[in-house]
Write a structure and sequence with these properties.
Number of domains: 2
Distance between the termini: 46 Å
Order of helices and strands: EHEHEHEEEHEEHHHEHHEEHHEEEEH
CATH architecture of the largest domain: 2-Layer Sandwich
Strand content: 15-25%
CATH superfamily of the largest domain: Nonribosomal peptide synthetase, condensation domain
Strand order of the largest sheet: 1-6-7-8-3-13
Structural class: alpha+beta
Number of strands: 15
Number of helices: 12
């Protein structure tokens, strides 16, 4: 049973000021729009509650977030010369929020995760509240508008507005129309010598990606893009504690530990030639370079880099971990994530949008037909802030993010954390032929992490 309560709660209320009607897109927005050739470009946030929340208040809160961050109330418009965002005039009638009575929450979550959304036609934010004895809020965010850090910021904004509405039903959030979404908020922090070193980082990333020429990848079959599914695994508190304790003893971060388990899993499944390294495409949140660690608005502000590792068949987990730590410590000190951004080479967008779209489609098709030339990926979407994801009187028991569905043979594992737990997810197509392979990868990652000794640190 699903009822649309958007019309019950929105009405024709007016806001104290009108958000801007048009925003120019950023380079990152354009790139992710082109990325729809290789995946659905959607990020999801799933929030589980200890009880039931107010669906009417949540519906109102979802609507108000689109005024607080005006870009989320826009549609993406591909123009001839430049792409742009244009404010929608039908936000009060879109059905942004739905309530569904659920007999099988996991199945209903899966159904929500696999529904596509076009940023040119559909809202950038969609929310579904699944109701059983406890509520689960499912949020769909278009990656063209926001990356994982932007989605986490959105979830905390939604929680804040929901709390405020409890004691002030007429509350209106302060809009953020002028907050910059551009990569220039990062690039302006570097002087010319640093920018030259960042260009050097670009060539290092290209060398890691292209030399030697043949890559090793997960053996996925190209399936029907409309046949989408997710495999989701949870690393609960006891195992998370073991990972954290082992990393602390070895001077490694949680990310280093996960990278190590993923590399060992890939090595076991792909079984490359002994002289063939395994590459892994991974991501970095570029907000790390900002003085406050926070972007001017909800946006895309992530970078990509290639991590290349040699394979040693007899290596232990700690042997591989040492190699991962060495690689990551070097990359962190060498402008991590910035080598993938053309803004450090090109002062502006130099090609018209009508040219870049077919170029993006061509590159996407090449990637999908590349077979063994495309390395797998891992995106650590970070920790969801448990102290800020507070909805008032009903507690949050769990929350996680999912990375976009990629079309085979492309493959990416998404990792997110909440409290003392981690969640791994993979979205892919061709469930009949590819599910077994994806489950095998995650089984192997879990096996590597379970092998860690559960020794309690004195500090715990």
């Amino acid at each position: 049973m699903i009822k649309d309560i958007n019309k019950e709660t929105m009405g024709s209320r007016t806001l104290p000021q009108s958000p801007p009607q048009r925003f120019w897109s950023t380079m990152n927005d354009d790139g992710l729009f082109a990325g729809r050739a290789i995946g659905d470009m959607l990020i999801h946030c799933i929030i589980s509650f200890d009880g039931q929340i107010s669906e009417k208040r949540m519906a109102r809160a979802v609507r108000l977030t689109l005024d607080a961050e005006p870009i989320l109330g826009c549609r993406f418009v591909p123009g001839w010369w430049r792409m742009r965002w244009e404010r929608r005039t039908d936000l009060d009638h879109l059905g942004l929020f739905r309530l569904a009575l659920s007999a099988d929450t996991e199945e209903d979550i899966s159904g929500f995760l696999t529904v596509p959304a076009d940023p040119c036609e559909e809202p950038q934010i969609q929310a579904l509240l699944l109701r059983s004895d406890r509520d689960t809020l499912c949020i769909k965010v278009n990656h063209v508008a926001a990356d994982a850090a932007g989605v986490k910021r959105y979830a905390c904004l939604l929680a804040s507005i929901y709390r405020r509405l409890a004691y002030n039903p007429e509350y209106r959030p302060e809009p953020n129309p002028d907050g910059t979404r551009s990569m220039r908020q990062v690039s302006r922090l570097f002087d010319v010598p640093d920018k030259l070193r960042i260009v050097r980082r670009t060539f290092r990333d290209l060398r890691n990606l292209l030399s030697p020429r043949v890559n090793s990848t997960i053996p996925l079959f190209r399936g029907n893009p409309s046949d989408r599914t997710f495999v989701i695994r949870r690393i609960a508190h006891p195992q998370f504690q073991a990972i954290k304790a082992h990393g602390r003893r070895r001077g490694a971060t949680i990310n280093d530990m996960i990278l190590t388990a993923v590399f060992r899993s890939l090595s076991d499944i792909i079984r490359p030639d002994s002289d063939m390294p395994i590459r892994l495409m991974t991501t970095a949140d570029l907000r790390r370079y900002l003085p406050t660690g926070k972007a001017g608005a909800i946006c895309n502000l992530s970078g990509v880099f290639c991590l290349k590792m040699n394979q040693y068949l007899e290596a232990t987990f700690d042997d591989t971990l040492e190699q991962v730590c060495d690689r990551m410590n070097f990359i962190k000190g060498d402008f991590i994530g910035l080598g993938s951004h053309p803004i450090f080479v090109l002062p502006a967008k130099i090609l018209p949008a009508s040219w870049t779209r077919p170029i993006g489609d061509w590159m996407g098709e090449r990637l999908l037909r590349s077979g063994n030339d495309t390395p797998p990926g891992l995106t650590n979407m970070g920790q969801i802030d448990k102290e800020r994801l507070v909805f008032g009187e009903v507690g949050v028991s769990d929350a996680f993010l999912t990375a976009p569905v990629l079309f085979p043979p492309l493959f990416i594992i998404g990792i997110s954390g909440f409290g003392e737990s981690l969640t791994m997810s993979v979205g892919f197509c061709g469930s009949a032929v590819n599910t077994r392979v994806v489950e095998q990868v995650l089984d192997r990652v879990e096996s590597e992490l379970r092998s860690l000794p559960r020794v309690r640190d004195k500090s715990e």
